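pinging the channel bc i need a second pair of eyes. not urgent but kinda urgent?? the chain im working w is below, pasted from the shared doc
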Amino acid sequence: MSSPAYFHNIKTYLFNFADELGYSNSVGLGDLNIFAENLSKNLLNEIFGWELINANEKKRNQRSYDLVSESRGIYIQVTADKNHKKNIMIV
């Protein structure tokens, strides 16, 4: 399989997952949110080498961020909400 085909498949699977995540949230099911946090963590660690951990491992129901690498000063919130009403600050 060629590189363009791999990228197409990855994109297709990620968009399908996003649709499923949106549907699950719309009917009040949040189980996929935890999977999405860990998927994001694993992808970002693999791509950027950030050594992120899921913040819920340190403190249950962490409110302001989901993924953290304290040694690198990286804090990430993973959200399925398409509204960008929150203030985003990058330091």
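so The longest strand covers residues 67-69. and The chain has two helices and three strands. — does that match what u expected or am i reading it wrong
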